[in-house]
Design brief:
Blueprint lengths: L1 H31 L3 H9 L20 E2 L16 E2 L8 E3 L5 E6 L6 E8 L5 E7 L5 E6 L12 E9 L10 E8 L16 H10 L2 H14 L1 H14 L10 E2 L4
Parallel strand pairs: 3-9, 7-10
Antiparallel strand pairs: 1-9, 2-4, 4-7, 5-6, 5-8, 8-9
Helix pairs in contact: 3-4, 4-5
């Protein structure tokens, strides 16, 4: 009887040993292979804006500016007035896109509409559009459509968001203005551009000092997967001195 039971015990031990080996091997493989969340967290940590300095900026241009930021009937006790999404103290920012996206923070306001204009220094280029006022304080955007003239490489363009407290917009309407310059990718050290929004591309744009494209890429990622990219968006805005509006709702225009 003893001889008949030994093979069974040995087989049981062999099976247990095999299962333990497979389990340990699986755990080892999982420990060696970083999870998608771990990889993503490492990429997120590097998405901060690096200003381009004096590389190719035209210092004759004025920076993004604003006036009182309120309509006469708005409460001046608001914690934040209209604000362009531009790095604080920036004079001008870059884009590599022929039709970039522009962003503006709009507080709760009695304004009826928002008036956007874009023109070059000689006003040979001119584009304008009326936008709806969001319900509640929000960050809004406008992407130049395909029927708008493409920006030319090396040229400076002045953009303006004006709150229409009354229609038509008057010279005393609250507004924010700034300059954008289109540059070639090689000029800022970018060799490969992927039109699909990704953290890798956002990081590349941010490291190259290409503000408009880094901001737009992160905005699209946040819209697509807010649970994954909202923190990244807020970190990026904070790195540019925009922490006061980093947590505000984002409304992306759909062309």
């Amino acid at each position: 009887m003893t001889l008949n039971k030994s093979p069974i015990r040995l087989a049981g031990c062999s099976l247990a040993s095999f299962s333990l080996t497979m389990l340990l091997g699986g755990l080892s493989a999982q420990a060696q292979m970083p999870s998608e969340a771990m990889i993503e967290s490492q990429i997120i940590a590097g998405v901060t804006f690096e200003p381009p300095g004096d590389r190719t900026l035209d210092r004759s241009q004025g920076g993004a500016t604003r006036d009182s930021g309120y309509c006469p009937t708005d409460s001046s006790s608001s914690t934040q007035s209209v604000l362009p999404l531009m790095p604080q103290n920036s004079r001008q920012e870059f884009t590599v896109s022929d039709r970039p996206t522009f962003f503006m923070y709009v507080p709760s306001t009695s304004a009826q509409q928002i008036f956007f204009t874009l023109k070059d220094q000689t006003e040979d280029y001119y584009y304008q559009k009326m936008l709806s006022v969001p319900e509640g304080a929000s960050i809004i955007s406008i992407e130049l459509p395909e029927d708008a003239p493409a920006l030319e490489v090396g040229k400076n363009y002045r953009w303006t968001f004006a709150l229409a407290c009354q229609v038509p917009v008057g010279p005393d309407s609250p507004m924010v203005t700034g300059w954008v310059k289109r540059v070639s990718p090689s000029e800022v050290g970018l060799t490969q551009l992927d039109p699909t929004p990704s953290l890798e591309m956002a990081k590349s744009y941010a490291s190259a000092g290409v503000w408009f494209d880094a901001l737009t890429t992160l905005a699209r990622l946040r819209q697509q997967q807010p649970e994954s990219y909202t923190a990244t968006w807020e970190q990026f805005l904070t790195s540019a001195g925009l922490e006061a509006i980093a947590t505000k709702p984002l409304i992306l225009e759909e062309n």
